[in-house]
Amino acid sequence: MVTRTLLLLPGDGIGPEAMAEVRKLIAVLNDTQSAGFTVQEGLVGGAAYDAHGQAISDEDMEKALAADAVLFGAVGGPKWDGVAYEVRPEAGLLRLRKEMELFANLRPAICYPALAASSSLKQEVVEGLDILIVRELTGGVYFGEPKEIIDLGNGQKRGIDTQVYDTFEIERISGVAFELARTRANKVCSMEKHNVMKSGVLWKEVVAATHKANYADVELTHMLADAGGMQLVRWPKQFDVIVTDNLFGDMLSDVAAMLTGSLGMLPSASLGAPDPMSGARKALYEPVHGSAPDIAGKGLANPIAMIASFAMCLRYSFNMVAEADRLEAAIAGVLDDGMRTADIMSDGMTQLSTAEMGDAITAKYLTLS
Ligand code: NAI
Ligand code: MG
């Protein structure tokens, strides 16, 4: 039997509540399909800080590096506001991203039919939307040096951030985008600002060269990132996969996400490079939302973002495509049945708690299998 090691890092706030619903699905997959998941547990964020004074222990970091995939809940909250910068809850996530070298951040924007009418855009603009934003996560202006505030001595200061990309960084992120496109509608749109940025000139050049060398079967287009922002709200269905840098990706993925609904619905994946021997990628899956301290412990959290993150895990880490499709269909089906958590509640629908929503999706999954 195959064995698949999953490290669960629930974190703080609603993280553990949302993760509890994924545990139900892992149990169902093991029981009904002999999926062979071995679950390991770890602490991250405030939960880790409270236990041992660090945002993630070396031991749990080792587990993350050894696991086939990591499922991450959420971290942070006012309780740890006064905590030192290096051990604050968010530092746990940053350490995981850095040590696992998770350079590719995948943010899908999928419009569930049952929620199309509640989008801020017209129903026909978002209905059936299914796009994937691939954001470079470990380079660019958030990390480039110099990065500082200098005192000019004349009563003025200067804040400096540096946008830097090397060829290999653009090659590997565009490679991920092209490979994912092949499993979808086979189209990639690369977004940069080559009209005003040298890093943008290089970005466009390297994406085009990578395409020509290895992925000529995929349709490639280029768009200026600001125009891309406009097109995302004008006619998002023109896109399949969008590949872009860290800064533009941060903004464009948030814009795309909001086309489709609540923060409580949005999953993400972060992938590393394939192991040269096994081909396996390090990967971490997490909802886009934070720890939502305002609703934590009340059974109000929408677990769909966490469950949809697990569906991405099945798809991208374990190639369990049928199961991932079925789990996503179960989410859509429960929404079609009028089931809602408080954050997506509307007239005539049935309001469920976090656990009831998890149960409904689990039950629906079983009826579909
Ligand atoms: P947040 O995402 O935690 O919450 C924003 C709003 O959305 C809140 O009103 C919350 O109740 C609601 N919300 C979020 N997820 C929901 C869900 N699953 N179901 C229903 N409603 C949901 O962002 P906020 O309030 O800015 O940050 C709270 C804490 O989370 C902070 O400490 C922040 O640093 C941290 N954070 C952590 C992230 C992570 O772990 N990756 C990401 C973003 C924020
Ligand atoms: Mg952001």
Describe this structure in words.
The record marks 142, 193 as: Important for catalysis. This is 3-isopropylmalate dehydrogenase. Catalyzes the oxidation of 3-carboxy-2-hydroxy-4-methylpentanoate (3-isopropylmalate) to 3-carboxy-4-methyl-2-oxopentanoate. The product decarboxylates to 4-methyl-2 oxopentanoate. Belongs to the isocitrate and isopropylmalate dehydrogenases family. LeuB type 1 subfamily. The protein is α/β, with parallel strands linked by helices and 369 residues long. 41% of the residues lie in helices and 22% in strands. The chain has helices spanning 15-33, 46-52, 58-66, 89-99, 123-126, 167-182, 198-214, 225-234, 246-258, 304-317, 321-336, 354-368, and strands spanning 4-11, 37-41, 69-74, 104-110, 130-136, 144-151, 157-162, 187-192, 219-224, 241-244, 267-274, 281-287, 339-340, 350-351. The strands form 3 sheets. Strands 2-1-3-12-11-4-5-10-8-9 form a 10-stranded mixed β-sheet, sandwiched between helices. A two-stranded antiparallel sheet has the order 6-7. It has a two-stranded parallel sheet with strand order 13-14. Strand 11 and strand 12 form a beta hairpin. Helix 8 (225-234) packs parallel to helix 9. The mean pLDDT is 95. The chain binds 1,4-dihydronicotinamide adenine dinucleotide and magnesium ion. Magnesium ion binds next to helix 9.
